[in-house]
Structure formats: structure tokens, C-alpha cells
Design goal:
about 140 residues; 5 helices; single chain; alpha/beta
Length: about 140
């Protein structure tokens, strides 16, 4: 399963990393995990920072993405912030198309720090003192 997902800031920001060749089954599993995170939170908006720099490929059937990635319709979903330079240009184009298809509030940055700066600017309600101990040393 080439993804991991944790709270960067509990109930406020989900941090995920995806890599390798993703399958439809893995997309279904990661979608379910994201929905669980969104539903765990008492906050009105939960943001996601997704590092996809080492992503190689996604299943190409764009029509299925909207059916699979239902987290994008969750009322608590805030920004989806992608991080990294996807090395495969076809995969990068597919990700941009995917974000448009699922109607996500989407933006991409080269670094995790730039992603954090964006969220600091757009959501002043985030409690930055609550960064997960697990995440403090990794970004």
C-alpha cells in the first residue's frame, strides 16, 4: 500500500504521502482513510497536505476518479495542498485534471514549508502549537 496518512495537526491538517504505482483499490482505501479523518474532526474545515513527489502512476480511467475519491465532496474538506515536483509529467497532468474533476480546492507547492505558509495565510484558526510530535521532526 504505497501511501501513509497521519494528522499533522490533530483534527486540523492531514499529512499524506503517496508514492509508486497506485491502483484503484489503493485509491479506495486512501479515500476511506481520508473520510475517517474528516469525520473525526470537530472543526468546520480540515486541510490536507499530500506529498506526491515520488508518485509514478495513477489508474488512468478519469471517469472512475469522481466515484472513488468521494472525500472531495465532504463538507469539512478545506484545501488540498499538493507538495513536490512529480517526476513523470504525464502523471502531473493527470493529477491536475483529477483535482478539477473532483472539484477540490487545490494548489501545488514545491516544498512542505510553502504548503504550511499557504495554510497559515488562508486559515488563521489553525492551532500551530498543536503540531503532532510524530510530525515535528519529519518536515
Amino acid at each position: 500500500m504505497p501511501y501513509k496518512m497521519n494528522w499533522y495537526i490533530k483534527e486540523q491538517i492531514v499529512s499524506a504521502t503517496i508514492w509508486g504505482d497506485r491502483t484503484a483499490e489503493e485509491l479506495v482505501a486512501s479515500n476511506q482513510d481520508m473520510i475517517k479523518k474528516l469525520e473525526e474532526s470537530d472543526r468546520p474545515k480540515v486541510h490536507a497536505i499530500i506529498n506526491d513527489e515520488n508518485l509514478i502512476s495513477l489508474p488512468v480511467n478519469l471517469l472512475e476518479f469522481r466515484k472513488i475519491l468521494t472525500f472531495s465532496e465532504h463538507p469539512k474538506l478545506g484545501w488540498v495542498v499538493m507538495v513536490g515536483n512529480v517526476k513523470n509529467s504525464a502523471t502531473n497532468i493527470l493529477i491536475v485534471m483529477l483535482m478539477k474533476i473532483i472539484n477540490a480546492r487545490y494548489i501545488r507547492f514545491r516544498t512542505f514549508d510553502e504548503a504550511l505558509a499557504h495554510l497559515k495565510k488562508v486559515d488563521p484558526t489553525i492551532d500551530w502549537d498543536a503540531v503532532s510530535n510524530e510530525e515535528k521532526g519529519t518536515n
